[in-house]
Amino acid sequence: MPYRFLAPAILLFCCIGAYSLQNSTFHVLQVAMFGVLGYIFVAPGLRGRAVPARPACSARRWRSTSGAPCCCRAAIRWCSSQRPISLGLLITTALLLILMALPSIKKARQEAFQEEES
After folding, report:
1. Which of 101, 106, 78, 103 is nearest to 91 (CA)?
2. Sign, CA torsion 99/101/107/112
3. I need a labelling partner for 49 at 20 to 30 A (CA). Which of 40, 72, 106, 109 fits?
4. What is the mean pLDDT of the segment spanning 34-43?
5. What's the predicted TM-score (pTM) here?
6. How far apart are CA 62 and CA 24, in angstroms?
7. CA distances from 84 to 74, 76, 91 (A)
8. What own/partner pairs with CB < 8 Å and gap ≥ 24 does 16-22 have?
């Protein structure tokens, strides 16, 4: 999605969420103030640490070593054998998603079986 559409949508949803707290424009202004402060102070520091010096080379090297399909490359990179904590977090996330889905699946099954009986 192009940035020219994504950024205004994110700002709109943030403002709607802040306003919906107590129907007050104070919360919208507060979110805007902290957003500007975060942009000024935090973003340059994170960018300097997170972005490698030559991202094109590292991405090309990573793509060539991974034989996985496109949709799985990020998960494989995140859960590489050098990072067992990441693998544990991924497994925990998958289990939590399954546990969250179980009640709705159980309810749908009960409704389906009740309709068949009557």
Report:
1. 78
2. negative
3. 72
4. 81
5. 0.37
6. 48
7. 15, 12, 11
8. none
